[in-house]
């Protein structure tokens, strides 16, 4: 049997589109770490919360997740901002492990809150047009995946532009580069950190809305997405925004290939193996410099 | 230790020793759970509490120990008392290897923590596909005749398991107390407080950190062996899952990281709270999965925000009004 190049191209393409959503998910984590210096062990749980919100809005009011994404992102931005301002901010000067445990506790509360509220059964958003596919040359592309990737990339681009060109974005980057200097020139560091955390949570929620379309969701999705986001961000380099997107694409394609050519459940094994190797040999990420 | 504290400890010990005489099966199972968390928590505390290395992947050793002993019993009929040593040795080796790699390559802080999670997850998925040990379908051990005590194969009534875990928890307490007063204990605490300063003083931090990981891993492996034979079944999802790692660390964090009695006090509080809450929820009629874990999360959140050093140091101050 000749090697099926078209099949391979389809798998890679599908992986790239999912990877764009993964990239946005990881981008949020990276922003939270790079700027607010918080290792967000509740990132996937925030994502799962957004997935549930999208799924519930769809099931009860029939709101398309692609419409719900904007208000949800705004809501999660406020949620993240308040969460940081109220609780997480107090942990900035505490030992690292105290911060990890705090976020772990938040993660446990979110996951089990979802479990108690919605039960352990899997949910999915089923829209008719999601199942259609678009033909591009020899490729068949899922419409849902295409839209999700486009939305994720737009959100990522908006985030880039915000950090690059607005005064607030520049101020946030200043805090990340030189905290003491930022304080000296009179920046409100607490506010800017909370903004960064809010933006990270908003990115997670946009990714969550898109994932609600792409994957089925259970309360257990939260921890799995936390780990996935860490794998991507570490592979791409913790704190690097481009690294997160490239890492997302890489993991998306790798998962799609592993799911297609090997056992579907083996795909995350590959991700973890990659994480272990990268942690040991390139702790700053594949794209990062030598430590 | 003051006379009063020794007396209190002796009283508590006597109560625990006599518990099966008057406790029903339910109370005994709760007490067993408490002692299991106390034991596993003390094992984790050696690595994090004493030496300051945060592992969120202790399920790796729990699972490796459990599967090693259960596999030997299942396939070769090798009893748990022999399997225990092999399991502990395997976990010690795993811990030493992970520690050696991580510390040699300078993986520290959050990177180290993520490495421990990644290794546990890797093992979980690996065991899912390892059909010799049951794969994702699970491994089941022969169930004992009710009431018949087969101590050699660790099959028997709940009271037998209770005494086994009581012995283990007490031994871990004695070991922890001994370690804290030993050269290793002082070196670990120096490393925990300031690793660079410790190295500047001439402490071989690499070696002592590895010792902490190895010891902690071996003890956690023993907890895994106990868990495998107590429950009689093993699933990779269950024993290698990250929720299992989190469960282990709750007790010491709530009780007080790095303290001698913290893991025990924390385990007691946690078990009492979770069981109490489950009872109340069941009585109210809105039983739902996740309630116990939700309680864990809220307690953890409250402790880490309001009592960052845990319950035990605050409690200990109250118990010694003179100081």
Would you mind describing this structure in some detail?
Chain A is built from twelve helices and two strands, in the order H-H-H-H-H-E-E-H-H-H-H-H-H-H. Chain A has helices spanning 5-34, 43-61, 65-86, 96-118, 128-131, 143-165, 167-177, 179-184, 189-214, 221-236, 241-261, 267-281, and strands at 133-136, 139-142. A two-stranded antiparallel ribbon of chain A has the order 1-2. The model of chain A has no long low-confidence stretch (mean pLDDT 86). Chain B has a domain at 24-240. The two termini of chain B are 14 Å apart. Chain B has helices spanning 3-22, 25-50, 59-76, 80-104, 110-128, 158-180, 183-193, 195-200, 205-231, 236-239, 242-255, 262-284, 291-306, 311-319; strands at 139-140, 233-234. Helix content of chain B is 75%, strand content 1%. The A-B interface holds A 39, 87, 90, 94, 96-98, 100-102, 104-109, 111-113, 115-116, 119-120, 219, 223, 227, 230-231, 234, 238, 263, 265-266, 268-269, 272-273, 275-276, 279-281, 283, 291 and B 48, 54, 56, 101-102, 105-107, 109-111, 113-115, 117-119, 121-122, 125-126, 128-129, 242-243, 246, 249, 253, 257, 288-291, 293-294, 296-298, 300-301, 304-305, 308.
Class per helix and strand makeup of chain A: mainly alpha
Task: Tell me about the largest β-sheet of chain A.
Answer: 2 strands, antiparallel
- Series of H and E elements of chain B: HHHHHEHHHHEHHHHH
- The tally of beta strands of chain A, per DSSP, is 2
Give me some keywords for this one.
heterodimer, A: 291 residues, two-stranded antiparallel sheet, 2 strands, 74% helix, globular, B: 323 residues, mainly alpha
Give the arrangement of secondary structure elements.
The complex is a heterodimer of chains A (291) and B (323).
Chain A: H1 5-34, H2 43-61, H3 65-86, H4 96-118, H5 128-131, E1 133-136, E2 139-142, H6 143-165, H7 167-177, H8 179-184, H9 189-214, H10 221-236, H11 241-261, H12 267-281
Antiparallel strand pairs in A: 1-2
Chain B: H1 3-22, H2 25-50, H3 59-76, H4 80-104, H5 110-128, E1 139-140, H6 158-180, H7 183-193, H8 195-200, H9 205-231, E2 233-234, H10 236-239, H11 242-255, H12 262-284, H13 291-306, H14 311-319
Antiparallel strand pairs in B: 1-2
């Amino acid at each position: 049997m000749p090697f099926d190049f078209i099949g391979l191209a389809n798998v890679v393409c599908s992986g790239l589109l999912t990877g764009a959503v993964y990239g946005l998910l990881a981008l949020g984590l990276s922003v939270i770490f790079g700027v607010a210096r918080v290792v967000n062990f509740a990132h996937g749980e925030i994502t799962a919360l957004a997935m549930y919100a999208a799924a519930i809005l769809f099931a009860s009011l029939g709101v398309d997740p692609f419409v719900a994404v904007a208000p949800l992102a705004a809501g999660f931005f406020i949620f993240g901002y308040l969460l940081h301002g109220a609780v997480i901010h107090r942990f900035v000067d505490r030992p690292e492990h105290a911060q990890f445990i705090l976020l772990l506790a938040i993660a446990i509360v979110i996951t089990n809150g979802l479990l108690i509220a919605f039960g352990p059964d899997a949910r999915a958003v089923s829209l008719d047009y999601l199942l259609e596919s678009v033909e591009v040359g020899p490729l068949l592309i899922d419409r849902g995946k295409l839209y999700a990737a486009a939305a994720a990339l737009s959100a990522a681009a908006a985030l880039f532009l915000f950090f690059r060109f607005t005064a607030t974005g520049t101020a946030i980057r200043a805090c990340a580069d030189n905290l003491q200097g930022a304080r000296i020139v009179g920046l409100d560091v607490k506010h800017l950190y909370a903004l960064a955390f809010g933006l990270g949570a908003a990115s997670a929620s946009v990714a969550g809305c898109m994932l609600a379309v792409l994957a089925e969701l259970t309360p257990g999705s939260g921890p799995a997405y936390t780990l996935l986001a860490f794998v991507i961000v570490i592979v791409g380099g913790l704190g690097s925004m481009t690294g997160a997107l490239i890492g997302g694409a890489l993991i998306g394609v790798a998962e799609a290939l592993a799911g297609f050519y090997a056992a579907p459940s083996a795909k995350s094994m590959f991700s973890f193996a990659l994480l272990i190797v990268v942690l040991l040999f390139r702790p700053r990420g594949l794209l990062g410099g030598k430590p | 230790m003051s006379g009063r504290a020794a007396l209190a400890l002796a009283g508590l010990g006597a109560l625990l020793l006599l518990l099966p005489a008057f406790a029903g099966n339910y109370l005994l199972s709760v007490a067993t759970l408490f002692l299991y968390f106390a034991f596993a928590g003390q094992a984790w505390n050696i690595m994090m509490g004493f030496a300051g290395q945060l592992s969120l992947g202790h399920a790796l050793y729990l699972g490796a120990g459990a599967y090693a002993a259960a596999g030997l019993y299942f396939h070769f009929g090798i009893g748990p008392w022999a399997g225990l040593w092999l399991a502990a040795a395997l976990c010690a080796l795993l811990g030493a290897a992970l520690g050696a790699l991580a510390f040699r390559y300078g993986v520290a802080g959050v990177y180290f923590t993520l490495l421990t999670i990644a290794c546990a997850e890797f093992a979980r998925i690996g065991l899912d596909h390892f059909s010799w040990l049951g794969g994702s379908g699970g491994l089941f051990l022969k169930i004992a005749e009710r009431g018949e005590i087969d101590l050699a194969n660790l099959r028997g009534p709940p009271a037998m398991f209770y005494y086994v875990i009581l012995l283990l928890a007490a031994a871990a307490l004695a070991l922890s107390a001994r370690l804290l007063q030993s050269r290793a204990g002082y070196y670990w605490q120096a490393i925990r407080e300031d690793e660079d300063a410790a190295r500047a003083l001439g402490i071989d931090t690499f070696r002592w950190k590895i010792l902490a990981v190895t010891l902690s891993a071996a003890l956690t492996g023993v907890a895994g062996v106990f868990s495998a034979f107590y429950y009689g079944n093993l699933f990779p999802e269950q024993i290698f899952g990250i929720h299992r790692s989190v469960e282990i660390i709750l007790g010491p964090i709530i009780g007080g990281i790095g303290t001698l009695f913290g893991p025990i006090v924390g385990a007691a509080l946690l078990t009492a709270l979770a069981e109490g809450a489950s009872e109340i929820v069941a009585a109210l009629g809105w039983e739902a999965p996740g309630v116990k874990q939700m309680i864990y999360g809220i307690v953890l959140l409250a402790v880490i925000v309001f009592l960052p050093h845990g319950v035990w140091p605050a409690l200990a101050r109250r118990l010694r009004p003179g100081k």
